[in-house]
Amino acid sequence: MKDWKRHIGPIASVLAFLAAYGFFQFAYPYHLMRREQMTLFLFDGDYIRQTYRGSGWLARFVCDFLDQFFHLPVVGPLVVALLLTAIGVVTYRIIRHFLGKWPSFAVAALVFAWSFLRETENLYSTRYTLVVLGYLALFLLALQPRKGWLKVASLAVLAGFGVWSLGAPVHQYYGKPWGYPILSYDQVIGLDTEVARENWDKVIKLSEKDLYMTEASYCYNLAHAMKGNLGKALFNHSQKQASSLFIQISNEKSAFSDCLGGEVWFHLGDMTIAEQSAIIALQASPKHTGARYIKRLAQASLISGEKASAQKYLNLLSKTMFYGKWARLMMTGNQEGTVAKRLESYRSRLAHTDFVHRSNLPRSVLLGLLEADSTNALARQYLLCYDLMRLDLEHFVEDYPEGIPAKSVYQEALLIWLSLQDVLDEPHLARYGIESSAVDRMGRFFRNPSAFRDSYWYYYLNAMEEDKR
Questions:
Q1: Fewest C-beta atoms under 10 Å: which of 155, 385, 415, 421?
Q2: Which residues, at least 6 apart from 189, have a Cβ–Cβ distance to it below 8 Å?
Q3: 154 with 237, same domain?
């Protein structure tokens, strides 16, 4: 028992480290990755000299350097766990100068918990964790001299050094004084992160738990559209009208929403809106920078043929640790194999006519994309589903190409339209490739609508009832 008490300090430190690491690695895995997307650290002498000067230069430098490792699933949580554990250890050693062992443990535990919860805050910056640790370390160092006047002198000198190198200990930049984890929000961040990485199977897996949030439905829809089965999967997930297909891009929204809103347009082939999305997100981000946004601007410029603009963004990314290789492969003259083929496939989707348009007029943009490339299957899926979500069956039938097999949701919409036109007969069913058994299924729906919650019929019926209220 005595041996256990003698080693209580190291044991508590290890447990605190494992708790912090385990939480950010397994329970909150995308929180740190999101933070990395909004930062940029360049290995460039001029950039470092110009960016990291003035009060707080050291904290800003170390913070930006460490943030880039949040790109990695194991290393990011490891960095944060080490910082938080160090805060607890240093706090304990400071309080031990004034109080006994157990009161010191209590204070250290409270400071550790406070720092840990702040790290879970959405817009929190690791910089303040570094600032807290830095000032605690300087205060502990000032306590080392035995003579009182030396302690006071050391404290004054080290406090001045802290303000110069770490910045003010209290600043509005550090955000809220308290935070707490929101697990559902981390799942949405995860969906957004996997969308950016184009891990469509992972997006679908993360969507198995329906969050009933527009952003989550948006990611779910894009993943299934990229897999070519949006028409079948649409109502297996909650939908919030057309906003589940297209998130409007606006200066009044967050960097998260604006960046996510451009993902669909990029894959559809509209580089104008994709570029607009990245620029607005760049402006709205806390530091007005971000590796993800710059990467998207580089891609959009390459596909649009704006070589000078693309080279500017690629030059920036080439000086980063984790995007450098990608940037060099994308540079003109280095594009080979799958890179060149992919860029060409996106160029083939570009609209022939360049005109000013906005993301809140999706149907006209989709029609323009299909006019440029009638084989753009993604644009066709989004056009048809957009019509359905708006209950616009007239345009749906107009946009629906004859001769293709009616997928589940499309089939259900066609049956509603044929019923409204009073032409629900064998010739019209055959014309749209609808089996007669589907008519029987629709009859069963009207007898028990709640048994068909994943159908377009259920969505249409509820929407029509809401309009009547």
A1: 421
A2: 30, 31, 33, 34, 256
A3: no
Both 168 and 187 in a single domain?
no
Confidence at 276, pLDDT banded by 50, 70, 90: very high
- Report the distance separating Cα 66 and Cα 341, nearest Å: 35
107: in domain: yes
What are the b/e assignments for 152-170, b being 16+ CB within 10 Å? eebbeebeeebeebbbeee
Task: Give the closest residue to 34 by CA, choosing from 215, 167, 249.
Answer: 215
Residue 327 near residue 314 (C-beta atoms within 8 A): yes
Residue with the two structure tokens 């594009």: 335
Nearest to 316 by CA among 62, 43, 69, 51: 43
Rounded to whole angstroms, the Cα distance separating 395 from 393 reads 5
Q: Does one domain contain both 52 and 138?
A: yes
Contact 382/268 with Cβ under 8 angstroms? yes
Rounded to whole angstroms, the Cα distance separating 437 from 439 reads 5
Residue with token string 């509005």:
172
Comparing C-alpha atoms, which of 366, 429, 403, 372 is closest to residue 225?
366
Q: Which residues of 307-339 are buried (b: 16+ CB within 10 A; e: fewer)?
A: eebbbebbebbbebeebeeebeebbeeebeeee
Which of 128, 150, 174 lies at the terminal end of a domain, its last residue?
174
Q: Could you report the per-residue pLDDT of 323-381, keeping only the tens digit for each?
A: 999 999 999 888 888 899 999 999 999 886 655 555 568 999 999 999 999 999 999 99
- With respect to residue 48, please indicate whether it lies within any of the assigned structural domains: yes
Same domain, 325 and 200: yes
Q: Which residue range(s) make up the domain with 308?
A: 183-347
Residues 168 and 198 in one domain: no
Are 148 and 54 contained in the same domain? yes
pLDDT in tens, 180-209: 999 999 999 999 999 999 999 999 999 999
